[in-house]
Amino acid sequence: MAEQSKGEKRFETEEDLTNVEIPETLPVLPLRGIVIFPSQIHPFLVSRPSSLKLIEEVGGTARIIGLTAQKNPEDEAPAPEGLFPRGTAVRILKMLKYPDQSVRVLVQGLARIELGEFTQREPYFVAKVRRLARYSYRTGRRTHCTRTSLANFRSSSRWCRISPTNFR
For the residues 23-51, what does the mean pLDDT come to? Predict the structure, then answer.
């Protein structure tokens, strides 16, 4: 870690994820109730049989998979039509198997992807994917959203007893 002028620490070993190659086809794991974003490191529990099969087969080799959210989180066996068309390509960092056969997986988001044609449906999904460009707001729109959000926060904070006085 290198010392910065204001006493802040910065890690020198951060990887530039924009250069990581994303394969044209990826195994796709449907997620319930969570969304993983690029650069985010996040653990989640895998217990669905098809997802466990995916983790077993892919976790030891390529370690790059696609994650996308289910449209209906209560659907135990979603079809490709039950998945959102956009997701995130992730790298599997660690896996921890539990006695009940579930697996805790730690992943790092690499890039936003769009799912194309599904080339395999059993025992788990495999789809053609396309890497999406980095998402950025136009400067004017971002400034407007920031001002609006701050104004809304200030307005709502007047109703709270405990709020930071520097936002009023």
Answer: 90
